[in-house]
Amino acid sequence: MARGQRTAGSEAGAVPERGAVPERLLGAATRLFAQRGFEGTSVQEIVAAAGVTKGAMYHYFGSKDDLLYEVYARVLRMQTEHLVRIAAQDAPVTERVREAAADVIVTSVANLDDTVIFFRSMHQLDQDKQRTVRAERRRYHELFRDLVQQGQDEGAFRDDVPADLVVDYFFGSVHHLGTWYRKDGALSGEDVGRHFAELLISGLRPKD
Questions:
Q1: Are 114 and 28 in contact (CB under 8 A)?
Q2: pLDDT tens for residues 107-157?
């Protein structure tokens, strides 16, 4: 699967998706949660749209909660894998931060429906799953912060603003994407990623 690519799916009630059973279930759940909401979607509707049995679903997912959790967790895992790879590159820290900033925008836009659906319904997960998601997202932010801190320590970035605050400010914008970005708009995900990354790097350049 290409970077940031989502499994394509048909509308509910149409021919079930092809592909591996977990991906079919996740694709069906994502569409139905978007159309009807988490509470308004039954397990039976999900398995019917995916073209599998309840037994097949419960082989991979213990509950509808697990599907909702995985809708977002798979995106976050992918973004974390990208960030770990970017951080380990033998390149100037400025270029690594630029690439990381662009990557999280591009992958968020490519999976925007998943992210919007999850945050709209996250409060309906049990407390353990909510804590798990927060811990995984915090790990991603800490990895990003460590890159910014490295740039500050090396003198590549201004150090009069704490790295934690830089990361909170940047990701506030990332998490706001779902309120304004439109796939049929003038800017592609790559365009937005490039602009956001440049804004971040510009703001971090040391003062004269």
A1: no
A2: 999 988 887 887 788 888 889 988 998 999 999 999 999 999 999 999 999
Nearest to 152 by CA among 141, 163, 164: 163
- pLDDT of the residue at 126: 86
User: What's the gap between Cα 46 and its chain centre?
Assistant: 22
With beta carbons less than 8 A apart as the criterion, state whether 93 and 153 touch.
Answer: no
Region label for 138, one of left (φ > 0), alpha (ψ between -120 and 50) or beta (otherwise): alpha
Return the structure tokens found at 161: 């603003």
**CA–CA gap between residue 5 and residue 163 (Å, rounded):** 31
Report d(CA 64, CA 43) in Å as an integer.
Answer: 6
CA 82/CA 71 separation, integer angstroms: 18
Total-model pTM: 0.82
- Environment class of 13 (CB within 10 Å of its CB; exposed 0-12, middle 13-18, buried 19+): exposed
> CB neighbours of 161 closer than 8 A, spacing ≥ 6?
none
Residue 183: burial class (beta carbons within 10 Å; 0-12, 13-18, 19+): exposed
| Cα 155 versus chain centre, distance | 30
Q: pLDDT confidence of 19, banded at 50, 70, 90?
A: low
Instruction: Copy the structure tokens of residue 114.
Output: 């998943």
DSSP designation for 1 = -
